Records
---
Amino acid sequence: MTADIISIPRAALHEQVTQRLRQMLVEGRIEPGAKLNERELTEMLRVSRTPLREAIKMLAAEGLVELLPNRGAIAVSLTEADVRHTFEVMAGLEALSGELAAQRITADELAEIRAMQFEMMAAYTRRDMSNYYRLNAEIHSAINAAAKNPVLAATYKQVNARLQALRFRSNQDEEKWSRAAKDHEKMIEALAQHDSAAMRELLVSHLYKKRDVVLEQFRREAGAQASEAVR
């Protein structure tokens, strides 16, 4: 587990620690099932244990960390069944989010999403996966916000938190990453045309493509572990 050493100002300290830890979990710098070593993390982030523990509690509420009695905090590790079930729920939320956003999005909101899309494609061109993923997530959040349904927004945020690391990993296949980037261009067109049916279909298809990549990775890793066990 490694990360760049950063200095965090006192203002909004635990929020910044939460953001940094979330990034480490999503990008796999803290592997699924790994224990969060408080001493190592406080040294790495140059903070005391109090804001670190507050951050861990926030990430536990998001579903990225599991708090176990007498064992401390563990990075959540999902089973294949967990992945299937969560993607099923998320597909419904994405579909409704896209449908409502296409109906309700304002010109200013669309302009902001277009600007993020431009930045995201620049990151894609540089093969900067970290910034690509960050902007990708912001675009999906902006689409969800454009739906203007607070109940949907709260549910979406909670379920999506469980999938952040898996969404990041799904971009590690070059061909599928390229296809995902093209999907986003189609989403912009559908939003601009206020085509709710197209947005619904695009977002569901986009999510299920990611699900298929993730499940393929699960099976490949399971196969590699089985082969290693036989040796």
---
Amino acid sequence: MKNWNFRLKAGVAILALFLILGMIFPFFYTGNPIEWGTYPKNLKPSADHWFGTTNLGQDTFWLLAKSLQNSFVIGLLVAFFATVIGALLGLIAGFKGGFIDRLITLMTDSFIVIPSLPILILLGTMLKGRASLLYIAVVLIVFNWPWPARQLRAMALSLRERDFINTAVFSGSGTFKIIVKEIFPFVAGWSLANFVNTILVAIGSESGLAVIGMSSNEKATLGTMIYWANQHQAMLAGRWWWIGSPVIAIALIFIALFLTMTGYQQYSALRRGK
């Protein structure tokens, strides 16, 4: 870690803070943070309620912690499966070529040209704001796997002409073994950067849908916090702790992910240069 650049250190530090708040803190709360009427309404921040309470009688701090947990679960779930599916299909297409390459490329381009936002809004409207978080994650995976697939296909097309790939083919290694052991190490850094970027896209997409009431408004996420704050006029009433905490959290998470991604790229470039 001592060789990490400032961007990477700052990004990981901020991200670790929010991961602890979202993935660990909720387990210390015995009640249900989204339940209405648990506390007096509209209390200002104090020692008993660090971020005050909402107009619905919820403790804003614990609600934020639960919202972070659900938002991170969506982000990590979408990023993992979209990256794995995209990387696997892209590397297979680039390495095998021929009919398989054309088929996967057709699928990839077809999903890329379909606008995801109108589809997500349509699905949210049909489900009347009651879509489960898992359902939203699956839809986001469907629209996010083509991007890494297209990029990694181009990389695989170049790598398959290398001498060590020909050696592996002539030695009798199978396609999957060659992709995993010979090609993937060369694209692992890019895949990690795509993974981090997809977390950002997934959290941003879910938050945007929730703000306009098209996500799971019965679940606690950063987007639904903003949705309910808007519904109860938190901004006009001066209850900044309710609407401000999820907005600031989203902004800081985006900054942390950006710093982590660019910092890691700088770190990897420096290591390759040695």
---
Amino acid sequence: MRYISTRGQAPALNFEDVLLAGLATDGGLYVPENLPRFTQEEIASWAGLPYHELAFRVMRPFVTGSIPDADFKKILEETYGVFAHSAVAPLRQLNGNEWVLELFHGPTLAFKDFALQLLGRLLDYVLEKRGERVVIVGATSGDTGSAAIEGCKHCENVDIFILHPHNRVSEVQRRQMTTLFGENIHNIAIEGNFDDCQEMVKNSFADQSFLKGTRLVAVNSINWARIMAQIVYYFHAALQLGGPARSVSFSVPTGNFGDIFAGYLARNMGLPINQLIVATNRNDILHRFMSGNQYVKQTLHATLSPSMDIMVSSNFERLLFDLHGRNGAAIAGLMDNFKQGGGFSVEEERWTEARKLFDSLAVDDAQTCETIAEVYEQTGEVLDPHTAIGVKAARECRRSLDIPMVILGTAHPVKFPDAVEKAGVGKALELPAHLSDLFERDERCTVLPNDLKAVQAFVSQHGNRGKPL
């Protein structure tokens, strides 16, 4: 399997090199040169497989030539063996044909565990084989950080620096990051918003001279391995609901477009998906594109669903690449226009093509709380605010009541007590046993100004397990 850049100027790489590269040298994102496609018979034969075995069948084509089957199977078994639920990603029925796919049974109670538990093990495997050491600099709007640290904390050849917006993540999200200690773990609170953090990461990839020869690796969803891992649970959900003999629709809370792009890929790989709903909060750049062909930056607002407080959706470039016939030069021009002018529209026929599959809705905080309260009253289930946005979008945008609708349950509600309290839900939420003492644990975090050079100087000074790089 070879991977190419969405901007057409970077060299094609194999899986191992893409894992370590993250962003392409031309500023683009890596995608498979050719997407594997499965027959309906193949997909049907996977019904009833344990999650790690299904993951092997779905992801195997992406790592062929880089990781032997036996090694990959072992990595996957270890990855999903740490999840608290035997089904790994169980489905919970809300009503007759509406389901929540619970993606929060991993160590950090968020869907990011599906990819980042795998990414940590893949990095360990590849770096040990190569005898290399790397630095991870990642940005988080809430859940990626703790999942990345949890997935990579035992990696012998990795130093990890996670940037989060100061005072703009929930207390549980922050503590899940700042209470994990290790010589190779560094939490940085940036006096800015998530987009500022994400921009610093991208700029650091563009010029890595501050690392003095050490390689920088991405854990954000620009890293192809994260997208690859998320494809699996679309197959997992569909198989439980009668797929591939019947179509399934999905509503996906998304800010960076990575999770829903995985669903788009699953469909292109042969899974019958009728509809993909982009569910966003007040920071609605994706909704404005899907509903009106306007991809334009606006002011970023803090909301009750902080993991989606994102104004520039990195992975959207991967969809644009396909919509433009995989023309790298066209994407490079489009993204340059976006950087210079802060927005763009695409040709009508390309936008119309996207609308055949995608619908969207922006949900504000008041509607989020209303949905949490409504679902609790109807079912006794407590939703986190991101999942509630997915439910609201599913109910507003659904094309057919006859087709099962799956809402991606992206986080455990205990991570967002403020939203649950504002919704008026009286049910007490308890942290799982492995996090029961979270609020008593010591924290370690460094607050830095919204300044790229200050961040890079910190990384250079504290890398290599506390020794300057």
---
Amino acid sequence: MVEKMPGKVTEAILYHCGYCTNNLAVLFRGAQWEKRIFPALAVRICHKDLGNILYDTGYSESIFQKGVFLWLYRQVLPVCFKKGDRIDEKLALDGVSRESVKYIILSHNHPDHTGGLSRFPEYELVALKETLKGVPPGINPESRRAPERLLTNHFLCRYFEQVYDLFGDGSLIGIRLDGHCKGQMGLWIPDLKLFLAADACWGKDLVRHTLRMRLAPRLIQRSFSQYKDTLRRICRMKRDYPEIQVVFSHETGREQRLWP
């Protein structure tokens, strides 16, 4: 069994804030010719003491701005983003104001995770140092903080080298998941037995395809060897603790609400 739950998180809501598309046969050798939608995940975490916390913010209209990088991004990963997909619009439908979000945890600084940052007026941005350095210009949160409470006796330390207590109450645990990029941070929510694994893989059904990833998508990863190592660690954790729900940021499926 996983460690005792702290009883701080009451709910998590998984939103899809736009999506990109690609073909599985282009990504993996031996895969069927199948167009796949990859949603951009943003998660609202309801915390008894800290209120509404976001983990990532999905796409926004900014993905269609001019610039060579964004143009190349859209050529490689065609993006669909329509009215109502932005994270603050999703929150409004649930009766949640932008002002109520005081903390945003950022897994890493790619456009499908940072798009909605500018929609929130004042908040503390929590991310690993490498991610904070790459936050897009024009984003001015109330403060920026890298986690400092490095844990040494948490059960996740058996699988991952850097594990952090983000708020000092055991409710939200950050985990370094290098490979896709340096400074990617996953999130463990013990109250929900939920492990948010960011872009450590593109979906649970695609884990077994990892070793057959084609050259082009391998080159997108900062380090494919680290990418494989991180995914192996997640799989070992899941094997030892099958009750843990692992969610990757671009899995297919519906938006959903999760309770303890």
